[in-house]
Amino acid sequence: MDGREPVIFRQMKVEDIPGVQAVERACFSVPWSRGIFYSELTKNDSAYYVVAEIDGEIVGYAGVWVILDEGHVTNIAVHPKHRRKGIGRQLMEAITAYAALRGVERMTLEVRVSNLTAQNLYRQLGYEFCGVRKGYYQDNKEDAYIMWKDLKVDEKWTGAGN
User: Fold this and answer.
1) Across-strand partners of 53?
2) Can you give the CATH number for the domain in which 35 is found?
3) Fewer CB within 10 A of the terminal residue: the chain, N end or C end?
4) Catalytic site residue from 61, 122, 127, 145
5) What does the alpha-carbon distance between residue 62 and residue 1 come to, in Å, rounded to a whole number?
């Protein structure tokens, strides 16, 4: 044992919203509201969200919209006290696997120009920079990098070679 608590990854439910909002408030200056999460879970047929849980406490979550053959990462967050444990990577892998099973061929996301830690993770996962969205973030009008990942060439997701 390495002393780390076991992390459970599962599909987000409406009952998880308060815990997810606690993570949101700890991570973002403009957190999503309860209503946004509720709508994503109950009204958006394109949306899929996963939570990471330790001892019954939600410590992270990620979401993806699956639209035709593309997946758009909507949000990902890991509570600051649970970072650097691989949870963010596992959340990204979970939503990517879900998207691939639904025929997604390419994944995309936006990331703050200043968020070097997230950019590094995304590059490690095979995402590449493809452009900039000027003034994308509401709180400070910071630019966002647009990143894409092609799942068709990634044997892990397509099942090729198995």
Assistant:
1) 8, 58
2) 3.40.630.30
3) N
4) 122
5) 27
Q: pLDDT truncated to tens, each residue of the chain (162 aa)? A: 345 679 999 999 999 999 999 999 999 888 999 999 999 999 999 999 999 999 999 999 999 999 999 999 999 999 999 999 999 999 999 999 999 999 999 999 999 999 999 999 999 999 999 999 998 887 888 899 999 999 975 555 444 444
Residue 61 annotated to the active site? no
φ and ψ at 29, to 5 degrees? -75, -25
User: Cβ distance 37 to 21 under 8 Å?
Assistant: yes
Q: Is residue 21 part of a domain?
A: yes
Q: Which domain holds residue 132?
A: 8-158
Closest CA to 57 of 5, 135, 130, 123: 5
Residue 2 belongs to some domain of the structure: no
Average pLDDT, rounded, for the chain:
90
Residue 131 lies in a domain: yes
Q: Is 40 a catalytic residue?
A: no
What total of structural domains would you count in the chain?
1
Choose, from 105, 110, 136, 142, the residue flagged as catalytic. Answer: 110
Q: How far apart are CA 135 and CA 125, in angstroms?
A: 26
Residue 85 maps to a domain: yes
